[in-house]
Amino acid sequence: MTSGFALVPEGTHVFRIYNVEYDQTFGKVVVHLVTAKGITHREYFGLIGKDGAMNEGACNAFSFFAKTAMDNFALEEIDHTDLVNHYIKANAKHTIMESTTEPGKTKTFVNLNNYEVAHEFDEKPVEKALTLGTTPAQTETKTANLASLLG
């Protein structure tokens, strides 16, 4: 696929992490992923709730995601950029919901779950899958202390 938008199909896929954004002020982590076929996806982790308190569920989810991607379940601290160019296997499931902005229309969301360790794609990748995000990131490096996030 060279242009346009495509949802990650339902099923199990291996993803390469090609960028990670971390906004410490708002406690948001956005992980940019790509499949071997070049389909991109973003995983969002809201580490701080609207009330300003730590979102324990999101912190646990991100911690497990990061440890799985790094294949290191003893990690206590991670620089979010360390995740770049690591792989993760996950199951993609579609959730169809009514649009909140366009009554009568639906939107399809892709949710990833059942994360597993992966070290490379399990099928021959297209060039985009290997080159996406290879230019230096222009985000400030900040370390997330996983132990403190989890309490």
Q: What this model shows, in words?
A:
This protein is of the alpha+beta class and 151 residues long. It has a single domain (11-135, 144-150), classed as OB fold (Dihydrolipoamide Acetyltransferase, E2P) (Beta Barrel). 17% of the residues lie in helices and 39% in strands. It is built from three helices and seven strands, in the order βββαβββαβα. The chain has helices at 56-70, 127-131, 146-150, and strands spanning 11-23, 28-35, 40-46, 77-79, 87-98, 106-118, 143-145. The strands form two sheets. Strands 3-2-1-5-6 form a five-stranded antiparallel sheet. A hairpin with a 7-residue loop joins strand 5 (87-98) and strand 6 (106-118). The radius of gyration is 16 Å and the shape is globular. The model is unreliable at 137-142 (pLDDT under 50).
Main sheet, how many strands, which sense, barrel? 5 strands, antiparallel
Shape assignment: globular
Using DSSP, what is the number of strands? Answer: 7
Bin the helical content.
Answer: 10-25%
According to CATH, the fold-level topology is OB fold (Dihydrolipoamide Acetyltransferase, E2P)
Which CATH first-tier class would you pick?
Answer: Mainly Beta
Radius of gyration from CA coordinates? 16 Å
Topology:
Layout: E1 11-23, E2 28-35, E3 40-46, H1 56-70, E4 77-79, E5 87-98, E6 106-118, H2 127-131, E7 143-145, H3 146-150
List keywords for this structure.
151 residues; alpha+beta; OB fold (Dihydrolipoamide Acetyltransferase, E2P); 5-stranded antiparallel β-sheet
